Amino acid sequence: MRIPTEASFTSRLRSAAVAARVGLWLGVCFVVALGTGLISHYAQLDRQSVPLPTSPSWLYKLTQGLHVAAGTAAIPLLLVKLWVVFPKLFQPVPRKVREALPTALERGSIAILVSTSLVQLTTGMLNVAQWYPWGFSFRATHYALAFVAVGALLVHIAVKLPIVRDALTGDVDDTTHDRPTARSAGPVSRRAVLTLAGASALGAAFLYTAGTVPGVGRLAALSSRSRKSGVPINRTARSAGVVAAATNADYRLEVAHGSATRALTRDDLVAMEQRTCALPIACVEGWSVTGEWTGVRLRDLLDLVGAPNGRDVRIRSIQTFSASSDTVLPASFADDDRTLMALGLDGETLSIDHGYPVRLIAPDRPGVMQTKWVSRIEVL
Amino acid sequence: MRLARGGLVLVGTAGMAYGAWLLLSRQDLGQIAEVVVWLAAAVVIHDGLLAPAVLGLGWVGGRLLPRPVARGAVTVLVLLGPILLVAVPVVGRFGAKADNPTLLDRDYVQGLVAVAVLCVCAGVAVALGELRSPQRADEEE
């Protein structure tokens, strides 16, 4: 079999007019994913110089839902985009060094763009299904490669800007920037390719990420989560290794402010004023479900040890080895009336997998930071 | 225009450099090496396996199928192809955990079959639409 050249690809569908349009949508998906991803990364920092807002309580749910949906929608778009530009892979390299160098740099940046984009979309998609066939840190890698991918995308846009501008302002059937050999009519029109790519993107995003959206979640046939059993669970008590400690009669919730400390049993907490609040668990994996949480207002507990308003609070869990076992709650969250140390969910006693004996639930916070099996509250 | 392009190259290069630094400074050597393997494997699998497979389908389809059927086949391929890839992690249930019934809590095979049937119906509708309006083919020439 001989190696194809650019001229071997004769379909008029492989045109800059198509590539620029699919590329534009892909760019929108990447920008949405980057922006919402940065928000999520920032929300998970232990110390935020400017804390994220506590209201509206559904803001993180929205941004992280968009993050996962945009990433999934980008998968069909990227595949179509790569199909359209595939002949470029077989472009000859110029002989002269002066011409070859810019070409090599451009192709290098394309290689980086393609490989980081494929890896970002794949690892993000696998993370949603909690499948980790790798030894590197998902969070650190996904964060680092995001800058590489978007950086390479900006260089790519810079190189192609004149053609992109021409293509986007011209008609979709315009052939100005087409290769002379790309003349054969495909089985479908260029418009049809764009329609199909858009439909495929929306379809994939809906099927894979809309599983917990009220009303339509049941139809999202490929979603890893649903609302069937109420608020889904990410880490069970057994996998966190907390079952014995969480059910032990010696359990106490410690509240500490300097030398002032209190140790409360679960019964002590139940005897305090109970409040109910509807707040979502919004996971980094994109799903979110709102529950009716009942429990003691965190501010009431802070008052027991005489903590003034405006202080950050450290929340520790019985669980010791995970990122969520020791987090800092910014003062604006700690003082918010909706922030509860929850004892019940949807009218029932909190189950051990949801964080029995007591868990944190605060508005507009990533689910991973809503600490379960809380053992100690420290005023900072 | 020249300024905008220069600015984009500058910001883009800075972004790549920052990302590379993040990648190299936050994990141990073994982990970094595995990321590099993934980056290389992604290109090899796409350019060396997936893309040639789709090219092969296009080549065979273009020669064997009459135009209306080819239209339907392209419709099915673009709608269903990416969805089949996206379905791999959930249909395979690779991340399932025995103690967590709230994860991967659907019948994904059944769901995927239903989606595939819908995509094939869309393809058939497109093919039939083409058969009924032969003048559309003339317009596009």
Automatic annotation (TrEMBL), chain A:
The chain crosses the membrane at residues 22-45, 65-90, 110-134, 140-159. InterPro entries: Di-haem_cyt_TM (IPR016174), Mopterin_OxRdtase_euk (IPR008335), OxRdtase_Mopterin-bd_dom (IPR000572), OxRdtase_Mopterin-bd_sf (IPR036374). The keyword Disulfide bond does not apply. It comes from the Bacteria. Residues 245-379 form the Oxidoreductase molybdopterin-binding domain. The keyword Transcription regulation does not apply. It holds the Pfam family Oxidored_molyb. Keywords: Membrane, Transmembrane, Transmembrane helix. PANTHER family: BLL0505 PROTEIN, PROTEIN-METHIONINE-SULFOXIDE REDUCTASE. This is Molybdopterin-binding protein. It comes from Nocardioides luteus.
TrEMBL record, chain B:
This is Uncharacterized protein. It comes from Nocardioides luteus. It comes from the Bacteria. Keywords: Membrane, Transmembrane, Transmembrane helix. The chain crosses the membrane at residues 7-24, 36-60, 72-96, 108-128. The lineage of its organism: Bacteria, Bacillati, Actinomycetota, Actinomycetes, Propionibacteriales.
